[in-house]
Design a protein that fits this description.
With about 425 residues, this protein is α/β, with parallel strands linked by helices. The chain has a domain of about 220 residues: Rossmann fold, CATH 3.40.50.1100. It is about 35% helix and about 20% strand. The protein is built from 14 helices and 18 strands. It has a 6-stranded mixed β-sheet, with helices on both faces. A 5-stranded parallel β-sheet has the order 12-8-9-11-18, with helices on both faces.
């Protein structure tokens, strides 16, 4: 089938001021002089019309800020649960799955919904930027997804990942040399990888992916909500997802607002039931205190808690929680709770999901599933409520059993206290 694609028509809006302006290429912040805020895409098409499976993720291009289609994408898959729903006595449990599960029509080789981000961000890259190098910091899954997508589409990429997380950088085949990797030494975490990436971004020829500030990343993640709502035919009542930064929940909230404007899927806001991996629960503590600002978190205690948790990808110490339009505002507007589950609760949830639904879960998705189980046990959701469980990664064991793996090796491993000169020297040795 021949794919015809016209760049999506949209503008950008400062959430703080409401000012609307053109996207001049790679804007991550409001215009100079504006109050600090996330910016949001405002699409010309108000009623979404999915284009079909042949478009992959870009079936939802009406609400993606993209000017081109990259090869190899697939969209999240939503289905109505029978197994887990029966076990929890839920009448309307819908599972949105991003990962590798061919039996359900899910074919994401990274086994993670981070592919939705990578394809949306890559689709936003302009011709003028193609000669520069995209910089992405990650605790693992994001790096794997961006590496795969950029390799397949010849997009120059530099990853910054903690050395302890390098085992997450596995692929079914060797990557294109346009993808490079620098690691921060053992004992470092995601915070250190972000710090390294920020120093590299200041060098000539590099640009930041932008994280939560990038409208393409958020709206790419929001395709999970688009998948669920268009499948169900209405906005869910509850949204369950595990969070590190909370960007996925922000994206779901923004998608919810677009569906209300669409007018065909309901006029209500679903409650955001987001969860963290105990004992690393900084967002939970801030929200329960109703503090817009993140609470003080001792540096060494934070590192110790990151070491303890199974879901390392949930270990963001500086999430987009306080910023205008961030997670605090999403929770305040939509309602909901920040939950938490332990490693053991998540492991038990994973085993249950495998047994009755049929596929393994990534640790973060297991945290979300465990939190749903606890929420049902505690009576936090109604038995007849329409519930969306966002399985943000799964099928990894399924994928690995069928493929010989290749690992991306770092070009260098840098100390956490690396000097600017030392970083520049290592980056200068890289050749794209």
């Amino acid at each position: 089938m021949e794919i015809n694609f016209t760049p999506t028509s949209y503008k950008l809006q400062s959430i703080a001021s409401g000012k609307v302006f053109d996207d001049t290429g790679w804007l991550l912040d409001p215009p100079e002089g504006e109050q600090p805020s996330l910016i949001r895409a405002v699409y010309a098409t108000k009623q979404i019309q999915p284009k079909g499976d042949a478009y992959g993720l870009y079936t939802f291009a009406d609400w993606l800020p993209v000017n081109r289609i990259l090869r190899g994408s697939t969209a999240p898959v939503t289905y109505k649960s029978t197994g887990l729903a029966k076990a929890l006595s839920l009448e309307n449990l819908y599972i949105t799955f991003s990962g590798y599960w061919p039996e359900k029509g899910a074919f994401m080789p990274s086994c993670s919904f981070k592919e939705t981000e990578a394809y949306a961000v890559g689709g936003r890259i302009t011709d003028e930027m193609k000669a520069k190098v995209l910089v992405v910091a990650s605790a693992g899954n994001t790096a794997r997804a961006f590496a795969q997508v950029c390799s397949d589409n010849q997009i120059p990429l530099l990853l910054c990942v903690p050395e302890a997380n390098l085992d997450a950088l596995w692929f079914e085949k060797p990557l294109n040399p346009c993808v490079k990797l620098l690691a921060t030494e053992k004992g470092s975490d995601y915070f250190d990888a972000i710090h390294l990436s920020n120093q590299i971004i200041g060098l000539e020829g590099f640009y930041a992916e932008g994280g939560a500030k990038n409208v393409a990343r958020r709206d790419g993640m929001g395709t999970t909500m688009l998948s669920a709502t268009t499948f169900i035919g209405r906005i869910p009542d509850y949204y369950f997802q595990a969070i590190g930064s909370g960007t996925g929940a922000i994206a779901a909230w923004e998608a919810n607002l677009r569906f209300i404007e669409d007018g065909r899927f309901g006029s209500h806001k679903m409650k955001l039931m987001v969860s963290q991996n105990h004992p690393f629960v900084p967002i939970k503590k801030a929200w329960e205190a109703r503090s817009r600002e993140m609470l003080a978190y001792d540096h060494q205690e934070a590192r110790s808690h990151v070491d303890e948790i199974d879901a390392k990808v949930l270990s963001n110490r500086k999430p987009p929680y306080p910023i205008k339009g961030g997670l605090f505002d999403a929770l305040s507007d939509a309602g909901g709770m920040v939950l938490s589950s332990t490693n053991q609760e998540a492991r038990d949830a994973n085993l249950l999901f495998q047994k009755i639904e049929g596929v393994d879960l990534h640790p973060a998705a297991a945290i979300a599933t465990a939190s749903l189980i606890k929420a049902v046990e505690q009576g936090l959701v109604e038995k007849d409520a329409v519930i969306m469980l966002n399985i943000t990664g799964g099928g990894e064991a399924h994928f690995k059993a069928k493929h010989q793996l290749h690992y991306l090796k770092p070009e260098a491993i840098l100390p956490t206290e690396a000097t600017t000169t030392g970083i520049e020297e290592n980056v200068a040795r890289l050749n794209w």
